[in-house]
Amino acid sequence: MKASSILGLNSRYVLFTSKYNTKDGKKIANSKLKTAKILKKNNILHPEILAKFKSISDLENFKWEKLPNSFAVKPSRGLGGEGIIVIKKKLRNPKNQNIKWITTQKQKIGVDDLKLHVLDILEGAYSIGSDPDIAFIQEYVGRHKVFRKLAYRGTPDIRIIIFNKIPMMAMLRLPTKESKGRANLHQGALGLGIDLATGITTKAIQNNRQIVFKPGTFRKLNGIKIPQWNLILETAVRAQIASTLGYCGVDVVIHPEKGPMVIELNAQPGLSIQLANMEGLKRRLERVDDLVVIDAEHGIKIAKALFAGKFVDRVRFKEENPIVKAVEEVKIKNGDGKWYKFLAKIDTGAWSSAIDIALARKLGLLRKNKIITTRKKLSSLGEEERPVIFASLKLAGKRLDTKVTVADRKLLRYQILIGRTDLQGFLISPEIEKENRVKAKW
To answer: Which pTM was predicted?
Structure first.
């Protein structure tokens, strides 16, 4: 890594954060609640906020027993993960008295403990400049199955540096025993560099020193394929655009069922990501400074073209490009985990995939835990709100864990449509599919 390519603290501020980041954007990034509000407004998935505490009266009137078994208590303006308590499960209590929970640190904690912690947050114990703050309770995300043997107790996240709608560099942060289950590099978490083109980890650091294996094991840290990589990049860029920050860090977690979620924005992200990737940010930023980028999809294509990595450890990723026709058989997993076959229309003119509302209901995909958000759509009937659900599909042998819009398709020939966000890595044949090639199977 050449010294001339490294982005330092001064150049980060003078050349990028002060030049490209608006005051409103910084205010959004400095408040997790404002971040959540702007993400929701732009239909960008984020962990649900279950409660807010702005005053002592909010705290006293709150019904703690109504909380789910797992959740997180956070300060709105906290720094570096300080002041966050993550509850993993509720202890059984038949009489519903003296409720106790277990944290991810395996500590028992009660209502009085949580109240005291919220009071500390309100008084500014964890906020920027120790100013009075707002506390909130947020949905617990958990760990994706890919990370269960890699992360210690806490939830891993992916930090992506975005500039000018272009992903510049990415890093997977894995909690460790030393970091006490937190994905914080300064507390001893692992930082794994990620190749932007493929989503595969390349190098790793801990405490700013390069490592090869997960501490205490012989498990290699390079060659790990991050699931739903394209969707992660798209989610991060859309969050940067929504924030009005020209240069920022976007922290993304992968919900085991709902997929990528943005948990935080950073107007002045740390620079250790350069060590994790063993490459400087400055040169990359200079290459795209004056490019005109249309949207998130365009920015991601630029990033993959310019910054595709060469793995020094010869980690290779071969991705087949299956050919699909205008009409294809797809498999879809229902709400009980069973797979069923249907014919689907392959449509590159549609942005996202869609499913008929009656079919979605029959498959059990309109259950509350499956609905991610709603999306406004203009139709012949006017503007309507359509549910967006998480669904697992199989197309041409490839599994797609994706977001699908629910719509009324009873007058259309096919109940399922696959849009272009789910067609990356496929080749589309112009040949018309014979309608009687395969029948939907229940």
So the answer is: 0.71
